[in-house]
Write a structure and sequence with these properties.
The complex is a heterodimer of chains A (about 400) and B (about 400). Chain A is built from 13 helices and 9 strands. With about 400 residues, chain A is of the alpha+beta class. Chain A folds into 3 domains: about 80 residues, Acyl-CoA dehydrogenase/oxidase, N-terminal domain (Butyryl-Coa Dehydrogenase, subunit A, domain 1, Orthogonal Bundle), CATH 1.10.540.10; about 110 residues, Butyryl-CoA Dehydrogenase, subunit A, domain 2; about 150 residues, Butyryl-CoA Dehydrogenase, subunit A, domain 3 (Up-down Bundle), CATH 1.20.140. In chain A, the strands form 3 sheets. In chain A, strands 2-3-7-6 form a 4-stranded antiparallel beta sheet, with no helix packed on it. Chain A has a 3-stranded mixed beta sheet with strand order 1-4-5. Chain A is globular. The two termini of chain A are about 30 Å apart. The relative contact order of chain A is 0.10. Chain B has a 4-stranded mixed beta sheet with strand order 1-4-5-8, with helices on one face. In chain B, strands 2-3-7-6 form a 4-stranded antiparallel beta sheet, with no helix packed on it. In chain B, about 50% of the residues lie in helices and about 15% in strands. Chain B is α+β, with helices and mostly antiparallel strands. The chains are: A alpha+beta (about 400), B alpha+beta (about 400). At the A-B interface, α8, α9, α10 and α13 of A face α7, α8, α9 and α11 of B.
Chain lengths: ~400, ~400
C-alpha cells in the first residue's frame, strides 16, 4: 500500500498544470473564475485546444483518440482541470455517448460519430427523463415504433440540458410496451434538426436557460441510429449512469470553491480583522476539507479497483462518490454565499450569461447566488441522492 | 499509488483475524474482562507468540520491521474484536518512544522484553489541567547530583495500573504551557514515591491515576535530550492517533455489519427492519461514513511516514476529525437501529458504541483537532500551491 503519487505522476501533474496555465485563454479562465456561464463557442474553442494537444478525451481507448493514461493520471488531469480552473469537458459527449458507442456502437457508428463527438462538431444532449419519469426512469413512455428502416418516435423528454444548443440527442425510447418496464427500452441517436422535434426552454431558479423540454411528434429516426440491440437500452443507461457517478465526486471543484472562499474572505471585515482569520469560519472550511480528503482517497480507491476505461463504474461504491461528492459541492457553495453576504443579493442576468462587465455590482459576488441555487440540482440529477441510497442499500448492503 | 496489501500483509491479516475468531468472540471476551487485571495475560502471550508485540520494531532490536500498514492491519482487527489488552500503551506508545528516542542501552534492555510479552509499558502524560494539549505539563523534574527527582500528578494513564515501566513527561524548565523545557523519563512503576490508582473505563479498558512524589531516577532513565522532548511526544502521539483511528475503523466496521445483520432478522409490523426505506437510508449513511473513515485512516497512517512533522500533525488531525464524525454517527445510529436490545450490557452493540465514544475523546476529540487543523491553515500546506494536505 502506498498512497503517495509516484514521481512520474508528480511530473505529469506539473505538465498538466503548466499546460492549463499557458493554453487556457484568459477570457475563458476569467469567466470560470467569476462563475459565469460559458457560451457554446467558449466550450468548443477550449475543447479544440485540448483536442490539438490530444487531451480532449483522455478516458477513451487510444485507437479512438484517448491518451492511454491510467486511472490515477486521469484523476490528476481532471483535478488539475477543475482547479485551473478550466471548463469541464462536455459530459454528454466525452463521458456518455462516446464511451457508449465505443462499448456498444456499430463500426459505422464509431467511425462516423466518434471523431465528431470528440471535437464537439456534434454537440450531444441527453433525452432520458420525462415529465412522469424522474427518479423512476424506467417508467418512461416515449414510444418508438419501427416502420421499415426507420423508427417513428412520439413523446416528451424533460430536463434536456443544453438541448437548445445541441446538434444531436441520445434518447431512451420504449420499443416493447408489453415487456417488463426495464426490458422494453432502446436507445437511439437523433439529429436535432429532424422535423417534428420542438425544444422549449425551462428557466431555472438561477435565472438562466440551460434546461429544456423536448417534444417528439412523429419524428422519423433511421434504424441505423439504434445503439446496440433493441430492448437493451436500460443496460446501456445503467452503464452510463455508473460512468457519471464515479466522475461526480468532483473533489477538485469543491477544493477550488473553498480556496476561492478563503481568498475572498481576506477582504471581508470581521471583528477586528478579516473573515478569513475568524476561527469559526476557518473551522467550517477545514471540516469540509477533511471530508474532501476522505472522499478523495475513497475516489482513488474506487477508480484504482476498476478498469481505467470504466472509471470504476462497475463498483457500487461509486454511488457513495456521487452521494457524498454532491453534498460537499453544495456545502462549498453555501460557504461562498456566507462570504458574499449582501453582495450576493443583486441579480445580474447578463453578467451570469458572460457579459464582460457587470451592470454595477461586484463581479466576484454576482454569480455566487445563482451558482448556489443551481447547485441544488446536483443532488437531484443523474440519480437523486435518495436513488443513490436505494442503490447502495440493495446492491451493497443487501437490504 | 497502490491500495493493495502485499502477500505478507495479507497473511498477517488472516493470521490475526483467525486468532481473534478462535479466542476472542464476545463470550470469550466477557470472561477475559473478569480476569484480575481486567484483561488476559494468556491472550497477551498469544499476541507475543504470533509476533504481534514485535511488529513495529527494527530487526536490529529483535523486531519484525513492520511499517504503518502492518500496524493498521493489527489495530483494525483488534477494533473488530474489541481487544482490551494493552497493545496501544505498550507497543505503540512505550515502544514508539523507545524506537524514536531510546538509547542503544535502553532499547536493548527493554524492547526484547516487550517483544516476548514480559514487559508492559504506559505513557503518563495527561494531568488534571492539561486536557488534550501535549505541552501543558506541570509535573516537574529537577537535577539532584547525577540523578533526577520527579514530582507530579498524572491522570488517565492508559493501562497505567498494570504497566511495569512508565514513560513520564515532566518539565525541567519553563512555564506550564511552554513547548520547550519538557523531558521524558523511564520510571519503574513500582519505584518508591509512585502511587497508582487503577480504574475501569466506560468501555472496559483500563487506566490509572498516578502520583509521583520525590521519585528518583538515574540519568540513564532519560529518553532523548532533556528539555527538547516535545517534538518526540508529538511524533509518537501522532502515530498512535493514526493507529487508534485504524482501530476505530475495525470497531465501526463491526458495528455496521452487526446492525445490517440485525436489520435483516428483526421483524416488526410483519416485516424485517431492513425492508423499511427510512431505515435502509440510515444504514447507507452509516456505510458512507465507514468508507470515508476507512479512506482517511489509510491516509493518516501513511502520513506518519512524512518527514515533515507539521504535515504529519495536520494529516493526523484531519484523520481524527473524520474518524470522530464517523464514529459518532455509526455508534449512535447502530444503537438506534438496534432499538432497546442495544442498550443492554449483555449485547455487543453497546460495547462497540462505548469504545467508539472513548476513541473519539482519546488524544483530542473532534473539536480539538478541528481547531488545530483550522489554526494550521486547513487543507492546504501554506506556501506550496496546490498541496492539499
Amino acid at each position: 500500500m502506498d498512497l503517495r503519487y509516484s514521481e512520474e505522476d508528480i511530473r505529469f501533474r506539473e505538465d498538466v498544470r503548466t499546460f492549463f496555465r499557458t493554453a487556457l485563454p484568459d477570457d475563458i479562465r476569467r469567466k470560470v473564475v467569476c462563475g459565469q456561464r460559458l457560451s457554446r463557442e467558449d466550450v468548443v474553442r477550449w475543447t479544440g485546444i485540448l483536442h490539438a494537444k490530444g487531451w480532449a478525451t483522455p478516458g477513451w481507448p487510444v485507437e479512438w483518440g484517448g491518451t492511454g493514461w491510467d486511472s490515477v493520471k486521469q484523476y490528476i488531469f481532471k483535478e488539475e482541470l477543475l482547479m485551473a480552473p478550466a471548463p469541464e469537458a462536455l459530459v454528454f459527449n466525452t463521458s456518455m455517448i462516446g464511451p457508449l458507442l465505443i462499448a456498444f456502437g456499430s463500426d459505422e457508428q464509431k467511425s462516423h460519430f466518434l471523431p465528431k463527438i470528440a471535437t464537439l462538431e456534434y454537440w450531444f444532449c441527453q433525452g432520458f427523463s420525462e415529465p412522469e419519469s424522474g427518479s423512476d426512469l424506467a417508467s418512461l413512455r416515449t414510444r418508438a415504433v419501427q416502420d421499415g428502416d426507420e423508427y417513428v418516435v412520439n413523446g416528451q423528454k424533460i430536463w434536456t440540458t443544453m438541448g437548445h444548443r445541441a446538434d444531436w440527442c441520445f434518447l431512451l425510447v420504449r420499443t416493447d410496451p408489453d415487456a417488463k418496464k426495464q426490458r422494453g427500452i432502446s436507445m437511439l441517436m437523433v439529429d436535432m434538426k429532424t422535423s417534428g422535434i420542438t425544444v422549449k426552454p425551462i428557466i431555472t431558479i438561477d435565472g438562466y436557460h440551460d434546461l429544456n423540454e423536448t417534444f417528439f411528434d412523429n419524428v422519423r429516426i433511421p434504424a441505423a441510429n439504434l445503439i446496440g440491440e433493441e430492448n437493451k437500452g436500460w443496460d446501456y443507461a445503467k452503464y452510463l449512469l455508473g460512468h457519471e457517478r464515479s466522475a461526480q465526486s468532483r473533489v477538485g471543484l469543491s477544493k477550488m470553491r473553498l480556496q476561492r472562499a478563503r481568498q475572498l474572505a481576506q477582504d471581508i471585515a470581521c471583528g477586528t480583522g478579516c473573515l478569513a482569520d475568524d476561527p469559526q469560519f476557518r473551522e467550517r472550511i477545514a471540516l469540509i476539507e477533511v471530508e474532501l480528503k476522505a472522499l478523495e482517497i475513497l475516489t482513488l480507491r474506487v477508480i484504482a479497483d476498476g478498469p481505467a476505461s470504466t472509471g470504476g463504474a462497475s463498483d457500487p461504491k461509486a454511488s457513495i462518490l456521487k452521494l457524498k461528492g454532491v453534498a460537499l459541492q453544495q456545502a462549498a457553495t453555501q460557504v461562498l454565499m456566507e462570504v458574499a453576504g449582501y453582495d450576493a443579493m443583486e441579480y445580474d442576468g447578463e453578467f451570469l450569461k458572460g457579459a464582460a462587465e457587470p451592470a454595477g455590482g461586484e463581479d466576484w459576488a454576482l454569480t455566487i447566488a445563482p451558482n448556489f441555487y443551481f447547485a441544488r440540482h446536483v443532488s437531484i440529477a443523474a440519480g437523486s441522492s435518495e436513488v443513490q441510497r436505494n442503490i447502495i442499500a440493495h446492491s451493497v448492503l443487501g437490504l | 499509488m497502490d491500495f493493495n496489501l502485499t502477500g505478507d500483509q495479507r497473511l498477517l491479516k488472516e493470521a490475526v483475524e483467525r486468532l481473534l475468531a478462535d479466542t476472542y468472540d464476545f463470550a470469550q471476551r466477557k470472561s477475559l474482562l473478569a480476569e484480575p487485571d481486567g484483561w488476559s495475560r494468556t491472550q497477551w502471550q498469544r499476541f507475543a507468540d504470533m509476533g504481534l508485540l514485535g511488529l513495529p520494531f527494527a530487526e536490529s532490536d529483535g523486531g519484525f520491521a513492520g511499517g504503518p500498514v502492518e500496524t493498521m492491519i493489527v489495530m483494525e482487527a483488534f477494533g473488530n474484536a474489541l481487544v482490551v489488552e494493552p497493545y496501544l500503551p505498550t507497543v505503540l506508545l512505550g515502544g514508539g518512544f523507545l524506537r524514536l528516542a531510546g538509547s542503544d542501552e535502553q532499547r536493548q534492555r527493554l524492547i526484547p522484553r516487550i517483544i516476548d510479552g514480559s514487559l508492559l509499558m504506559a505513557f503518563a502524560q495527561a494531568e488534571p489541567q492539561s486536557l488534550y494539549d501535549l505541552f501543558r505539563v506541570e509535573t516537574r523534574a529537577r537535577r539532584v547530583g547525577g540523578a533526577w527527582v520527579i514530582d507530579g500528578h498524572k491522570r488517565h494513564v492508559l493501562h497505567g495500573d498494570s504497566a511495569d515501566v512508565l514513560v513520564v513527561s515532566a518539565r525541567i524548565d519553563g512555564a506550564s504551557n511552554d513547548t520547550e523545557g519538557l523531558a521524558l523519563f523511564l520510571v519503574d512503576a513500582t519505584a518508591p514515591g509512585v502511587t497508582r490508582r487503577g480504574y475501569r473505563l466506560q468501555d472496559h479498558t483500563r487506566a490509572a491515576e498516578i502520583r509521583l512524589e520525590n521519585v528518583r531516577v538515574e540519568n540513564d532513565a532519560v529518553l532523548g535530550q532533556p528539555g527538547h522532548a516535545f517534538p518526540i511526544i508529538t511524533r509518537v502521539v501522532d502515530s498512535t492517533i493514526a493507529a487508534l483511528c485504524c482501530e476505530a475503523v475495525g470497531v465501526m466496521a463491526n458495528a455496521h455489519e452487526r446492525t445490517i445483520e440485525y436489520m435483516k432478522l428483526r421483524k416488526q409490523f410483519g416485516a424485517t427492519l431492513g425492508s423499511f426505506q427510512a431505515l435502509q437510508h440510515r444504514a447507507v449513511d452509516m456505510f458512507v461514513q465507514l468508507e470515508l473513515a476507512r479512506s482517511i485512516a489509510m491516509y493518516g497512517v501513511m502520513s506518519c511516514e512524512d518527514t515533515d512533522p507539521q504535515a504529519c500533525s495536520r494529516a493526523v488531525s484531519a484523520t481524527k476529525v473524520q474518524i470522530g464524525q464517523s464514529a459518532r454517527l455509526i455508534g449512535q445510529e447502530s444503537l438506534q437501529l438496534h432499538g432497546g436490545i442495544g442498550m443492554t450490557e449483555d449485547y455487543p452493540a453497546g460495547h462497540y458504541f462505548r469504545r467508539l465514544t472513548m476513541i473519539e475523546m482519546l488524544f483530542g476529540d473532534t473539536s480539538y483537532h478541528l481547531a488545530a487543523l483550522a489554526e494550521a491553515g486547513g487543507g492546504w500546506r501554506t506556501g506550496r500551491r496546490l498541496e492539499f494536505f
